[in-house]
Amino acid sequence: MMKRLKLMGILACAALALLAGCASTGGAATGGGGSGRGRNIRGNTPQFVKDAVKNQPEDALVGIGTARLNSVSQSRVTAATRGRAEISRQLITIVEDMVRDYTASSEVNPEAALAYQSNITLALSRSALQGSRVVEEDQDETGAYWVVVMMPRNAAAQEVNQAAAAAKLAVPAMAAMNEQELMNRQFERLSGQEIQVQSN
User: Fold this and answer.
1) How many Å apart are CA 99 and CA 183, to the nearest integer?
2) Which DSSP symbol is given to 66?
3) Which runs of consecutive H residues, i.e. helices, occur in the chain?
4) Tens-place pLDDT, residues 74-96
5) Total structural domains in the chain?
6) How would you classify the pairing of strands 145-151 and 61-67?
7) Cα 87 from Cα 93, distance rounded (Å)
8) Burial of 96 from C-beta contacts in 10 A (0-12 / 13-18 / 19+)
9) What is the pTM of this model?
């Protein structure tokens, strides 16, 4: 009974944190366009990819994938998978940084923090990335197929919160961690970083 009440409390806090985060994201929570200022893309990319990135909200996660296989269909699927894999890597980086920041500012056992991080990372790596969507795709003059995948901040927060709730059940020592506050800091840090292109 006590465990059930504790779980309900954690889930309620996570839901409130998610709602508060969504309310503070402005246009990003509703899918509104952003300027994309400050975002650079590493590598030689076609102009339509750069334009697609500029048209996404600044606090959205963006993954770019490219592939050149035997057929357009295979290339398209592989490029989209690579774009989503990049978003997954970004989510895992956010969690790693959140746990590192929390561990540095608290007296939590480092082994508990590592177990918690491992649980979230595993859950995110298995995640279907609900809320991510292809926003642009096309083939360039060399035959390479490019896909730009975007995941709004509120969808990313939901993925992390779901994984964190499950991880807290497995590692109760991390119950006091405030994911929303730490996640907001990581999104601010990520918004100006260079976007990687996944091609291999």
Assistant:
1) 10
2) E
3) 2-23, 47-54, 72-104, 110-125, 153-170, 179-190
4) 999 999 999 999 999 999 988 88
5) 1
6) antiparallel
7) 10
8) middle
9) 0.70
